[in-house]
Design brief:
Layout lengths: L4 E3 L2 E2 H29 L2 H18 L6 H7 L3 H26 L9 H4 L7 H21 L3 H25 L3 H21 L3 H6 L5 H10 L2 H63 L3 H30 L3 H5 L10 H14 L4 H6 L2 H24 L4 H31 L1
Antiparallel strand pairs: 1-2
Helix pairs in contact: 1-7, 1-11, 2-6, 2-11, 3-4, 3-6, 3-11, 4-6, 4-10, 6-8, 7-8, 11-12, 11-14, 11-16, 12-14, 12-17, 14-17, 16-17
Length: about 425
């Protein structure tokens, strides 16, 4: 029997249920509005939007220096808020750097596909900052066990993204609707997120000094030193997939891939990430001796659940994409199986990636993530020089990701077992 009690306020499964239901509703909202969005915006617009999302996601991977994880592990509320403040300082720093870099981005944007983003470059820095702020808020709410608030913020973000994009798209049926809608949703969710942090957060908030920032940074140096580059490598490996696909195969194919990611991979992987948030809280409140057995049971549960989700997705989506999202999207069915498998792979991997933080072995996570990035770049080079088809490219990429994720899970569970003894 799995017994993952980690606080007096609830259990692992109660907390997971709160996050799971919120995630299910937010994903259902995104999927429910997708047929409307695909009839307002064509595949090419979605392809450009995918590039925008990929770029801000890459920037968001390091802008908070992974301090949201340190917020969860901080021993007191005061220390946690100090870490949060340090994270805000990094957000301000990187925002200034991004603004400067925008002025030098013209040569990069001379690439035909990326050039389509030139008119929206000023949205990139501020949206990346909002992503970093949302991560820090998520870390604080996770620490306090306020999973219902996290769940509601997910629903708010999904709803506001869809409504803003549709509203603007009805007047300007171009990429404007998608990008401005995304920005508005991030802004609204961040504001509401700060409002629900609670009195414990605001009462411990103090104006930072250089001395206090240095002390906090020294205490949690492993997060910016190891976790940040590791996370950046991992996120860049995933998001560069869409950038590369857009450059090589064009924005229309990229639009197909983004839609599949939106309705297949993202729902399954974000559910898994929510399991990981609760699991990380459980790990931080217990010793390795107690966590290993339950971690193995959790792995078996994730394997079974991923199989069920994959079968359901295949049955309900294959041969129906064109009917649901419009005839011009029917060719996306050709790539459905790849994304179902990729979603299953990430679903199983995500929760156990938190073990790196829990055991303080972020440098090994950095090695693993660098391997992920290196192999992705290798596949891009092979695809480019040998002019591989989109199917061959997808087979290589998905197969590589599966192998590396399996190796990572084996390694961290072995280290957890070693720690318990």
């Amino acid at each position: 029997m799995i017994n993952l009690n980690f606080s007096s306020k609830g259990t692992f499964f109660q907390s997971f249920r709160q996050l799971f239901l919120g995630n299910v509703f937010s994903q259902l909202i995104a999927i429910a509005f997708s047929p409307i969005l695909t009839r307002i915006f064509d595949p090419a617009s979605f392809g450009i939007y995918a590039l925008f999302i990929s770029i801000i996601t890459i920037l968001g991977a390091f802008i908070s220096m992974r301090l949201e994880g340190a917020v969860v592990l901080a021993k007191t509320n005061r220390i946690a808020v100090d870490v949060f403040t340090l994270g805000i300082s990094f957000l301000a720093f990187w925002f200034c750097i991004f603004q400067i870099l925008i002025y030098f981005a013209n040569q990069l944007l001379s690439i035909e596909t990326l050039n389509l983003l030139a008119n929206y470059s000023y949205f990139i820095p501020i949206t990346a900052v909002l992503i970093g702020l949302m991560l820090l808020i998520d870390g604080w709410l996770n620490k306090k066990g306020k999973f219902l608030f996290i769940s509601n913020l997910q629903i708010l973000h999904a709803t506001s993204t869809a409504i803003c994009s549709i509203t603007i798209g009805l007047y300007y049926a171009s990429i404007n609707g998608l990008i401005i809608g995304a920005f508005a949703a991030f802004l609204l969710t961040s504001i509401i997120g700060l409002m629900v942090c609670g009195n414990e957060f605001w009462s411990n908030l103090r104006f930072p000094t250089i001395k206090s920032l240095k002390k906090t940074l020294k205490d949690f140096k492993n997060f910016p030193l190891y976790s940040t580059p590791a996370n950046l490598c991992g996120v860049f490996s995933v998001q560069s997939f869409y950038i590369f696909a857009g450059i090589i195969y064009g924005e229309v194919i990229l639009g197909f891939l983004y839609l599949l990611n939106r309705i297949v991979s993202i729902p399954s992987s974000t559910i898994s990430m929510n399991v990981g948030k609760v699991y990380f809280k459980y790990l931080s409140d217990n010793r390795p001796k107690k966590t290993y057995k339950n971690s193995i049971l959790l792995l078996l549960a994730m394997l079974a659940l991923s199989a069920v989700i994959s079968i359901i997705l295949y049955i309900f989506l294959f041969s129906y994409i064109g009917r649901i999202f419009g005839s011009e999207w029917s060719d996306a069915e050709n790539y459905l199986v790849y994304f179902i498998f990729l979603g299953a792979v990430n679903f199983i991997y995500s929760p156990f990636s938190f073990i790196y933080l829990y055991l303080g072995i972020q440098k090994y996570e950095l090695i693993w993530q660098f391997s992920t990035l290196f192999t992705s770049l290798l596949i891009y080079a092979i695809t480019f020089f040998f002019k591989l088809s989109i199917d061959a490219f997808l087979i290589l990429f998905v197969g590589k990701q599966a192998c590396l994720n399996i190796l990572s899970n084996i390694y961290v569970l072995y280290r957890l077992k070693e720690k318990k003894s």
